[in-house]
């Protein structure tokens, strides 16, 4: 408590005598300080062991009293002590408001004790104390500010370290690590159930919305998102609340994210996030280079089978579209686009013609030519499957029509 004494001579001598006398009452002051803090809030006792708190309070009050009468050019040991206390209290989890209150309370105790000691003595001693009031309370403010600043800096550093630790746990889960207790630690740190319904979302990085921080600002009723950045993509762990499913998740992401992206099937716990991440990445691979939608793997299974086997996909394209690929690029593009639109329209030539801005007979003619070039019939289920998968493989190759 207190601070550097700007006066010298007789004033300084009287103040120093008062402070020295007050040091003899230090245990009494600390006991009173501890009682008053306990009356003010039970949190002190819950957070700080009594003996340790008593010793630290005794040191702080003693240094404060000694600093009050120290020479003007003396080091500010009271501020160093306050900074140390601020760091400790942040690490211990004591609320900042209670830290500041403790300094104020100690200041009142010391000031009242100084006035009490001067009462009944020569008037000059009381006059010196009154002239020192501004200096004393300014020093108390300095100490509270030093402790608060150190507290906030430590709190920020602790939060940064905690975030890094949680990110490391989440990364380990997404990489599929199976260390004992890993899922339980992540559940406790992230405040998520260890066992529950989860999905993983993967977004291509160059198409994501701009944002900062560990938590991407995409939220929705029934969903909790935790996002992690990668060099070329962004991963989102999604906790699905009661009644929430992939339909709602896909709709939310389509409305909020530019895409392209992939959504994994639902998995039953944090320990399965590695598998979910691999499946979400596979779903993303089913998106064409110019795609803008976020797709579900469970709705892209045939295409996922194709992209998961690149060598077989290449053989499928050459085996089914061999003769077609020898056509002029413009001619080839017309036939492949017609097939794609016809499939999208569920085999309706009339609807396909509307989208292609041509007559339905033109659609039939192009499809017949396609059948001739591929030696396959769109009326035979097995041939239709081969042509559909070959079309997906060709489109995902990035060559374009």
TrEMBL record:
Residue span, RsbT co-antagonist protein RsbRD N-terminal domain: 27-165
InterPro entries with a match to the protein in the record: CdaR-like_regulators, CdaR_GGDEF, PucR_C-HTH_dom, PucR_C-HTH_sf, RsbRD_N_dom
Top-rank taxon, per record: Bacteria
Domain PucR C-terminal helix-turn-helix: 335-393
Ranges for domain CdaR GGDEF-like: 176-286
Pfam family name, one: GGDEF_2
Gene3D superfamilies hit by this protein: PucR C-terminal helix-turn-helix domain
Family recorded in the similarity comment: Belongs to the CdaR family.
Protein name (record): PucR family transcriptional regulator
Source organism (scientific name): Streptomyces sp. R21
């Amino acid at each position: 408590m207190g601070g550097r004494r700007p006066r010298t001579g007789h004033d300084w001598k009287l103040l120093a005598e008062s402070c020295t006398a007050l040091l003899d009452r230090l245990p009494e002051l600390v006991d009173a300080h501890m009682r008053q803090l306990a009356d003010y809030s039970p949190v002190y006792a819950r957070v700080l062991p009594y003996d340790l708190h008593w010793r630290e309070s005794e040191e702080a009050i003693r240094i404060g009293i000694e600093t009050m009468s120290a020479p003007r050019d003396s080091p500010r040991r009271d501020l160093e002590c306050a900074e140390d206390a601020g760091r400790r209290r942040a690490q211990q989890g004591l609320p900042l408001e209670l830290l500041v209150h403790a300094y104020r309370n100690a200041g009142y105790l010391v000031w009242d004790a100084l006035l009490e000691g001067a009462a009944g003595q020569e008037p000059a001693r009381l006059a010196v104390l009154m002239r020192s009031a501004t200096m004393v309370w300014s020093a108390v403010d300095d100490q509270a500010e030093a402790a608060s600043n150190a507290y906030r800096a430590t709190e920020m550093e602790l939060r940064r370290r905690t975030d890094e630790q949680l990110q490391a746990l989440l990364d380990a889960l997404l990489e599929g690590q199976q260390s004992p207790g890993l899922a339980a630690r992540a559940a406790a740190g992230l405040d998520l159930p260890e066992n529950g319904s989860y999905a993983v979302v993967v977004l291509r990085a160059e198409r994501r919305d701009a944002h900062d921080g560990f938590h991407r600002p995409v939220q929705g009723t029934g969903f909790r998102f935790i996002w992690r950045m990668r060099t070329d993509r962004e991963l989102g762990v999604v906790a699905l609340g009661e009644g929430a499913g992939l339909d709602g998740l896909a709709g939310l992401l389509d409305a909020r994210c530019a895409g392209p992206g992939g959504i994994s099937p639902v998995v039953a716990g944090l320990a399965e996030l590695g598998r979910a991440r691999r499946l979400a990445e596979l779903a993303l691979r089913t998106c064409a280079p110019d795609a803008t939608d976020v797709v579900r793997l469970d709705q892209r299974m045939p295409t996922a089978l194709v992209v998961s086997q690149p060598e077989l996909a290449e053989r499928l394209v050459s085996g089914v579209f061999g003769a077609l690929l020898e056509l002029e690029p413009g001619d080839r593009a017309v036939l492949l686009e017609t097939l794609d639109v016809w499939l999208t329209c569920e085999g309706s030539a009339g609807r396909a013609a509307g989208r292609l801005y041509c007559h339905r007979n033109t659609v039939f003619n192009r499809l017949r030519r396609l059948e001739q070039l591929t030696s396959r019939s769109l009326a035979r289920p097995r041939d239709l499957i081969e042509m559909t998968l070959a079309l997906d493989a060709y489109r995902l190759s990035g060559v374009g029509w």
